[in-house]
Each structure stands twice: as C-alpha cells, then as structure tokens.
Amino acid sequence: MSHFTSIKVQIKNGEILKDILQELGYQVEVDTNIRGYQGNQTQAQYVIRQDNGYDLGFRSQGDNYELVADFWGARINQQEFLNQISQKYAHKTLLSQVEQEGFSVEQEEVLSDGTVRVVIGKWV
Fold first, then answer.
1. For the CA atoms of the chain, what is the radius of gyration?
2. What is the rounded CA–CA span in Å between residue 90 and residue 12?
3. What string of DSSP letters covers 17-85?
4. Of 17, 26, 83, 108, which has the maximum CB count within 10 A?
C-alpha cells in the first residue's frame, strides 16, 4: 500500500524550481525515485534525499508540478516548505519576465513581514 501524497503547486518551470531548491541548500537529484514507507518508491523529476529514508520529490503533472512524498515519514512542515519555495519561485519568475520584456529592476527590498517589494522601470 502506497503512502505517497501529492500536493499540486503553482510551478510551471522545472529549471527555476531546481535552481530555487539548490539556492535553499538542498542537494537535488534529477529523474530518479523517491523513497517512502517500507521501501516504497515513486518517480519524480527533482528529488531531495533525506537521511531518514523519506524523500521529497517534485514531478510534472500537466502544466504544473506537484510535491510528492510520504509526509508521515518526511517530517517536514509542508506549509512552510511550500511557502518558501513559492515565494522564491514567484520572485525569480518575475525577474525573468521583467528582463524578457526590456524592463529593469530599480529597487528591491524585503519588508519586515518577509514580503519582497520590487520596483521596475523602463526607459522609453
């Protein structure tokens, strides 16, 4: 019986996801299996190995990615983990889009509540 659970996340670009995970200090393996309860395994594109044998993985599901893990054994705070990744993903995606459209970042600051404020501009 599988104990794996999937959580859909609003992430479309796997390369940005991989970069973010690495920036957060995780060692990321690509296109391999994640481990769970009693040695059960399932496939994922990006895998974070954990010493306790319960890995975290992200796999493509349609246009988005999903986080998949045996959360009972993974012992992470799912909400904190996903919030951290989602915030960094939104920030990196914004900066990428800004650059593609010819804008530049004029100011960037992290507010006391953790919100990132970005001011962009374009010379015309």
1. 17
2. 11
3. HHHHHHHTT--EEEEEEEE-GGG-EEEEEEEE--TTS--EEEEEETTEEEEEE-HHHH---HHHHHHHH
4. 17
SS3 state at 106: strand
pTM of the model: 0.85
pLDDT at 114: 79
CB 70 within 8 A of CB 7: no
pLDDT tens-digit map of 66-76: 999 999 899 89
**Domain limits, the chain:** 5-121
Architecture of domain 5-121: 2-Layer Sandwich (3.30)
Report the SS3 class of residue 116.
Answer: strand
Residues ≥6 apart with Cβ < 8 Å to 29:
46, 47, 48, 49
